[in-house]
Specification:
Helix content is about 10%, strand content about 40%. By secondary structure, it is mostly beta strands. It has one domain: 3-Layer(aba) Sandwich (Rossmann fold). It is globular. The termini are far apart. The mean pLDDT is about 85.
């Protein structure tokens, strides 16, 4: 199922092609996500799926190896 991508100006956070490895472990693989302003959003997944790694990137605790994170002010 495809959803329309809002412009990054409408998003609280916009993530494009984010990937991250820890040694041989691929934690994030080409994650693209746009969270519109006023939207309730949750991350759901198995242990080790990359939820915490994604949140740490959004918070600026980890730097993107590839891809980008935009947080308009």
């Amino acid at each position: 199922m495809k959803f329309p991508s809002p412009s990054s100006a409408d998003a609280v956070v916009s993530i494009a092609a984010l990937s991250r490895r820890f040694g041989s472990k691929q934690a994030l693989n080409d994650v693209t996500l746009h969270v519109p302003r006023g939207c309730v959003f949750g991350l759901v997944g198995e242990n080790g799926a990359g939820k915490t790694t994604l949140i740490k990137h959004v918070l600026g605790l980890l730097n993107a190896e590839t891809g980008s994170i935009l947080q308009p002010h």
